[in-house]
Amino acid sequence: MELTQCDYDSPMYRAALVQLGETARLINLPDNLHERLRHPKRAFIVSVPTAMDDGSTRAFTGYRVQHNLTMGPGKGGVRFHEDVTLGEVAALAMWMSWKCALMGLPYGGAKGGVAVNPRELSDKELEALTRRYTTEIAPFIGPDIDIPAPDMGTNMQVMAWMMDTYSMLRGHTVHGVVTNKPLLLGGSHMRREATGRGAVCVFGCACRAWGWDPAGMTAVIQGFGNVGAVAAESLRGLGVKITAVGDRSGAVRNPKGLDIDAILRHCRENQGWVKNFPGGEPITNKELLTESCDILVPAALGGVIHEENADRLRCRVVLECANGPTTPQADAILNDKGVLALPDILANAGGVIVSYFEWVQDTEHYFWEEDEVDARLQKIMTRAFEEVNALATGKKVSLRAASMMLGVNRVAEAKKMRGLYP
Ligand code: NAD
């Protein structure tokens, strides 16, 4: 099938295929396996009719894509954002496949989403939308089939509604159907912080590997939600100075260092927005990405570092907390400039690792202490960084190429061992 005719065609899906193609070349992937990995196993498009507070009904469109289920049940977040498309969800599902395999987790890759701006909904409308979306995808999810989690625009409360809806349909409580639930409902310690903290753990490993001292370095963070805000706190813990942050409302900078606790307080008091924070000077989101710093942390949307701005980036390291923040074209420009990218499937894997821990705890009905979760998270992320770094050094490739080589190769090997059915 011509790519342009492909149902999944979108800038993000094309980027995912380019990365896969480049990896296939590096690992000499046989064509028949490459062909199987290029296509998601299955995708669901559902209508999500929702009763609005004004008495009207709006039908939103929801998606769930399972890219591969070779290593185990599907795993991946649910995104509520107005720009969500089938192609974006498919790309994110594919990246989940490589990420889970890279981390050695017994999962396939999946992702879901609804094209909606959750901030335009009341709590009642958001709950109704979540419950209907869950009902529509219920036949295709479950602890042994596919386990959603939060992503952009969704949170612990959304996961509690999803778990409740699925459980009501089954007639009994099913903790393991989603992860990042509240602790009282079978959640795990540290799940909320896992992605941001995990990313900073990978950055710490990189510093140790290259003899860098993070104390006194500066960081700029795009996105101040679940992941960005925790990454800011964790970087501060290493002595890094956060000089600019932004979200969809706008951005602020202060070359002397922003007071992260004060911004968090400001966000709590201002509907979650960074905008109008008095401890910094306002800048645009465009300016934010090209601010001079040591560490640039994209923690919002995909594709924000692209051909037009990559050359103007003024950082030493890109710590990719968002999924797919750097296009393949931008990646080549950054490589030429000597900017080091700690790639998404390595850097932001903390979330899915602690999701895995939550699922294991739910399955065993036995819950771990926070220090146990933290120690196990650090162990897996450190091991993954060391494997990636060793391969990158040995093969003289980037950390992104090495991460992809390890992830794709593991899925391909598993497919080879299982054979082609029927
Ligand atoms: P979130 O909804 O909690 O926060 C998203 C942030 O991005 C918000 O501050 C929002 O204002 C900002 N944002 C949205 N649109 C923007 C725009 N156009 N310009 C600037 N900022 C914008 O979401 P999150 O869970 O923190 O996820 C952020 C990123 O991290 C996403 O790419 C997600 O896929 C990725 N990720 C999340 C997890 C997780 O555990 N939550 C795990 C791995 C990867």
Structure description:
- By secondary structure, the protein is of the alpha/beta class.
- Helices cover 46% and strands 17% of the residues.
- It contains 14 helices and 12 strands.
- The protein has helices spanning 11-26, 31-38, 86-102, 123-137, 156-170, 191-210, 226-237, 260-269, 285-289, 328-337, 344-347, 350-364, 370-395, 399-418, and strands spanning 42-51, 57-68, 74-81, 108-115, 146-150, 218-222, 241-247, 250-253, 281-283, 295-298, 317-319, 340-342.
- The strands form 2 sheets. The protein has a 7-stranded mixed β-sheet with strand order 9-8-7-6-10-11-12, sandwiched between helices. It has a 5-stranded mixed β-sheet with strand order 1-2-4-3-5.
- Helix 13 (370-395) packs across helix 14 (399-418).
- The longest helix is centred in the C-terminal third of the chain and has 26 residues, at 370-395.
- It starts with 10 loop residues before the first helix and ends with a helix.
- The model has no long low-confidence stretch (mean pLDDT 96).
- The site of nicotinamide-adenine-dinucleotide has 24 residues, from helix 7 and strand 7.
